[in-house]
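Deliverable D4.2, example record:
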Amino acid sequence: MKKSVLFVSVLFCFQLLLAQNLSGYKVHSHNDYLQSVPFWKAFGAGANSVEADLFLEDGSLFVAHTRAEISKTRDFESLYLEPIQKSIALDLGFDQPFQLLVDIKSEAYSTLDTLVNTLKKYPSIIGNPHISIVISGNRPKPSDYTKYPSYILFDYQSLDPVEDPEVLNKIALVSLSFKGVSAWNGKGRLTAEDLEKVKATIGKAHALGKPFRFWATPDSKTAWKALAHLGVDYINTDMPFECKAYLSKLPAREYRNTVFSEVYRPTFEPDKKKKPVENLILMIGDGNGLTQISATVLANKGETTLTQLKSIGFLKTQSADDFTTDSAAAGTALATGKKAPNRAIGMTMDGKNAENMTELLSKKGYVSAIITTDEISGATPSSFYAHQKDRSLSGPIRKDLEKSKVSLIASTDQPGALKNSRYTLLGTPQELQESKSDHIGFLMGQTDDPNKEELAITTENALAYLNNKKQPFFLMVEGAKIDSYGHSNQIDGVIKEGIGFDKAVAKALQFADTHKNTLVVITADHETGGLTLPQGNLAKNEIEGDFTTDDHTATMVPIFAYGPRSDLFQGVYENNEVFHKIMEAMDIKN
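Output generated by the structure prediction step:
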């Protein structure tokens, strides 16, 4: 296979990958001939339009920005017409509209006549219904537009009405300089005055019934998004790959929240009191870093129950053997106070079992419960009852559960996963608080929960069950799917799960306000996705999420606390110190 054909094939495959997520936004490769690989780079990126500046020199057509830059090796046919013809012959696209914008830099009539004669040699191009040849730059008088073949169209650079319908029919799009409307540099936002000017310009252009393009625009994600949302039909860019990749995923990056967490405002009566802690509620938002929390807050009308709290710190999350932790090592650090290697459940670097909270607290007369939106054998929940060298050993992990010190479990397991278990599965979360049994369970996720209430309801009823035991208790609640949506880079799922987790936080704080010997600690095992929030709209509860990875990151995660001794959790420290701070708050020696 010739190198050129191979190159085309590779680029086309790349284009197909991008095409799977097309958003409908059109990208125009401005001054495309200045790209490292003209035409192919933009075409491979899925750009809908490319621009070539054209000079007529000694009877031949050359592509260059200025006449002084003309090179005999950069003729129009070899850079554009031959590649397009080859692509058509190889059936490598052009089943969608594609625009070749020819910006004439030399005298209009003679250059255009030469271009028409040249195009006659490429019947597959001029006969393709999806390809438009659009003349920009130096153009004939509008009244002469109709003299040119049907495959020649024109770029109209005015907002004045076009009275002649035949001339209007020869116009492919309307283009204007952005700098003639606004001096915005693409950072931050358009001023209110400039925004109205831009909207008015786009509106007048669309009144002509044609697509619209600004040239000389800022070239940034912020600008691309703003112009696309304002209705600009062709987004002008010198970075066609980056622009197309961004715009093709923009609908999935934006989420407008419609389900809200009602904010509970704690009394703060028991908060920071120097009194012994009897009950402990530890809540872990898996993958719930500061940005995930911020996204939930901003999508939840600007506040959540979690962000009412005053005792706040940050955890360093590195595992014993890696810069970036997994859930097993992080869960083990929180549950045992020992740093662990990635994938290890309740075991340290030397392969020894590390005593976890449920084991230690059972010796002190505590009853324990675990709630998770994951399977009960998931890495985080199992760190609080199991000891296995690898998180994938679900069979041995489940055997550890059967001999654990955990009285109540709630998870999203399938019913068959707990067959022959010592845990009696109840049909509703409300049955939990009525049970007198020492080993009960409830399986969440069996019915649709559009309002994300199930974790909160299960938490509330589990607290009632534990309170009825008339013993001090430990409850671990995990919002596991924040992590799942971080891995898949779905901002909507991150926020929805964050809302559900915050509703559970509200139930925990309500309990702590009525049972003032209860300490509530809320944190995350790690951050997932490298999430940032470049833009949004508070009035619309709208968030744009930009992920940098589909894996965990090593950024610190926040920790919140409420109740007696909550001030112990302020500051910045290693994640395994959480265990020791909890033991200090409970006045337990280990």
